[in-house]
């Protein structure tokens, strides 16, 4: 790829993507520019860690960039877009990773003809394991969509989706890793309370999660079948699952996903 990619926002998610894309040969370090609102120390750290160009001069970055990646918090997006519309040209392409920021909102602010892509990656991009959903705006050509796919494939898998699915996807895949971490935290805590030392608990839990993920990916069986395969009649798994069911685990998870999804909808509505 010959394009220069400029990140506006240098937080956790931007760093995860920068780490991923600079580890591959798809773009060179020289093609990656990074800025943030005002945190020079953070930019120095990113420059040192990944060898990319970090600068606070935002106008210069727009001039050099082909692809502009929006990676600030949703609350900062409106002001940034209002500023960006004064500098953006039709040869630029804008890719957002911002939860709840709609394509309509971006197109409306940036004006006619600007290609805009909305994505939802997750922080596993840091190790090339993101599950990134991608939706294209009205001015995006197929080649530009393929470019975005190729870019995010450097940090994991990609899936093209209708934008209307993005609220749900933000809940299960953008926020999703945090929910699995919370489950691991809870299991670790229970194991420690039962007398296991922390290191052993975390080591075994980590490999258990990796193994379960790989089984989901490679076995060809669905999660229900994989669960049934572990659950011997009157055995230990059944005893544990009975507790989850008695405490309405399904309902808890549904309210978790709905909570995240509804927050995504709220963020979108607040921008309109
Ligand atoms: N953290 C995550 O797991 C995920 C986050 N996202 C989205 O990514 C975005 C960033 O999230 P985090 O990295 O966690 O946030 P963060 O708070 O760590 O980073 C935000 C960055 O944006 C910068 N910024 C704010 N206004 C700016 C401006 N006008 N110009 C340039 N930079 C500006 C800040 O200086 C900071 O570097 C959010 O919109 C979030 O919805 C999406 C998927 C997953
Ligand atoms: O919590 C958030 O708002 C962001 C979006 C998806 C993951 N983290």
What does this 3D model show about the protein?
This protein is an alpha/beta fold. The chain contains 12 helices and 8 strands. Helices cover 56% and strands 13% of the residues. It has an 8-stranded mixed beta sheet, sandwiched between helices. α8 crosses α9 (198-218). (2S)-3,4-dihydro-2H-pyrrole-2-carboxylic acid binds at residues 99, 170, 174-175.
Task: Characterize the overall form.
Answer: elongated
What would the average pLDDT be, to the nearest integer? Answer: 96
The major pleated sheet works out as:
8 strands, mixed
Bound molecules: 1,4-dihydronicotinamide adenine dinucleotide, (2S)-3,4-dihydro-2H-pyrrole-2-carboxylic acid
What attributes characterize this protein structure?
cytoplasm, Rossmann fold, 2 domains, P5CR_dimer, alpha/beta, binds 1,4-dihydronicotinamide adenine dinucleotide, binds (2S)-3,4-dihydro-2H-pyrrole-2-carboxylic acid, single chain, 272 residues, 8 strands, oxidoreductase, eight-stranded mixed beta sheet, ProC C-terminal domain-like fold
